[in-house]
Backbone:
């Protein structure tokens, strides 16, 4: 369990980091908080010859209010700092609810918002929040900057649309529609373990009926996915138990989650339905009244 | 690729050359001879290697030594010694918190970080924070009781742990 040798670079600026990535291409790996990459190095599942450590790039840290609503996170923002942020509590309740579920305190002290998103684990909380909220990823390279919406950013297991020379520099998470209620619910075998399944839900009412609902599932596919058919079916409905149960069935009926020693596909599909039901019910309870 | 690495460990400036691939845990143990930090899983699951870096609990197996350059590291050696235990260690001892002792340094450092941030956690908060550390002997009850006792005695404020 010792890392294989690599060349180590600790750039002090984004430009320096981008130059290194441009020079080394697919030989290089970006090291942010290291809570996923270092285990992969230790187990030699990843063997980059060049490690570009961005921890000394001060301009990549920080939490800022975006115009209007939403919050921007420098890619190197520690998960623990986001968890303690009053701006996050105020503007992004779904993120505030998801953050404490990531690993443990000592993991979140090092783990970063951008690192988790760029790692793109299909069972991880932050990519699911990014998909649920329609977050935007700011990506830079020596060739320029582009802004990638979440549904184009995440491609598959541990795979994003980042090119080899690109660096995720900021994650912009919108607050969602005014009056919306949010909930994040996950089910894990043990506290702090990777969840078997998780759901981020949003409900906004139009009068007495649901105006808009969003359901995002994690741990059931090769990336976090929206249950768009179930979402559409919820619009115009009352948020009662029957409606929510029907949405949970619709959202999970076509899922084909993995089977492994932690649970069969059928068990995971069942849990996903339970998580959808709980998350939707909580989100509806938190949504503002008639608007 | 080797670099000269200088860190402040338990208040003392220490310096040694190390390959850049060496983790902080291995650097502390093999280069500085501070074997109080234990290595269980070496991939961030068991919590045995927990130390404090600039005041925050981290897993020293998931940090490269070169990343600790210039930082202040507190290990279990920076707390009490056998004749003069830190109040947290004393409380854990009185509650028979540990048996084999392998996971002990990780639990001690994780608990210390908790008490420094929140001097009077309740049992639920203690269990939540300690859930990141694995102990195969005790069933955890005695560890939780030890941390509760330490909190009662204000162990988070003890000055010896501020190196």
Residues:
């Amino acid at each position: 369990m010792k890392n294989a040798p690599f060349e180590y670079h600790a750039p002090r600026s984004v430009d320096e980091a981008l130059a290194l990535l441009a020079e080394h291409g697919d030989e290089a790996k970006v090291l942010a908080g290291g809570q996923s990459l270092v285990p992969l190095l230790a187990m030699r599942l990843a063997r980059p010859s060049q490690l570009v450590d961005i921890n000394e790039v001060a301009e990549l840290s920080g939490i800022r209010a975006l115009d209007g609503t939403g919050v921007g996170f420098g890619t190197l923002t520690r998960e623990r700092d986001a968890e303690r942020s009053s701006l996050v509590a105020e503007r992004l309740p779904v993120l505030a609810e998801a953050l404490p579920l990531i690993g443990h305190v000592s993991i979140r002290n090092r783990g970063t918002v951008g690192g988790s998103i760029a790692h793109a684990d299909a069972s991880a909380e932050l990519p699911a929040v990014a998909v649920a909220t329609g977050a935007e990823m700011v990506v830079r390279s020596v060739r320029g900057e582009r802004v990638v919406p979440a549904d184009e950013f995440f491609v598959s297991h541990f795979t994003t649309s980042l090119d080899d020379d690109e660096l995720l520099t900021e994650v912009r998470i919108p607050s969602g529609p005014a009056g919306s209620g949010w909930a994040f619910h996950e089910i894990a075998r043990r506290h702090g373990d990777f969840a078997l399944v998780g759901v981020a839900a949003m409900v906004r009412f139009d009068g007495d009926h649901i105006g808009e609902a969003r359901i995002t599932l994690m741990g059931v596919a090769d990336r976090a996915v929206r249950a768009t058919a179930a979402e559409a079916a919820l619009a115009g409905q009352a948020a009662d138990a029957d409606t929510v149960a029907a949405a949970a069935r619709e959202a999970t009926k076509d899922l084909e989650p993995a089977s492994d020693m932690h649970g069969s596909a059928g068990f995971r599909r069942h849990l996903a339905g339970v998580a959808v039901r709980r998350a939707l019910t909580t989100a509806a309870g938190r949504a503002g009244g008639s608007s | 690729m080797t670099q000269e690495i200088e860190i402040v460990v338990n208040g003392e400036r220490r310096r040694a050359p190390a390959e850049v691939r060496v983790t902080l845990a291995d650097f502390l143990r093999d280069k500085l001879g501070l074997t109080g930090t234990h290595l269980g899983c070496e991939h961030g699951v068991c919590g045995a290697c927990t130390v404090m870096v600039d005041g925050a609990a981290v897993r020293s197996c998931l940090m490269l030594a070169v990343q600790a350059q210039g930082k202040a590291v507190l290990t279990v050696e920076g707390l009490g010694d056998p004749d003069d235990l830190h109040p947290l260690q004393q409380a854990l001892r009185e509650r028979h918190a540990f048996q084999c002792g392998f996971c002990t340094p990780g639990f001690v450092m994780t608990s210390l970080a908790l008490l420094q941030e929140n001097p009077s956690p309740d049992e639920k908060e203690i269990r939540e924070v300690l859930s990141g550390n694995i102990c195969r002997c005790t069933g955890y009850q005695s560890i939780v009781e030890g941390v509760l006792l330490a909190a009662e005695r204000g162990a988070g404020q003890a000055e010896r742990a501020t190196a």
Notes: The longest strand of chain A covers residues 197-206. The radius of gyration of chain A is 19 Å. Chain A touches chain B at residues 1-8, 10, 31, 34-35, 38-39, 41-43, 51, 53, 55, 80, 103-107, 109-110, 190-192 (CB under 8 Å).
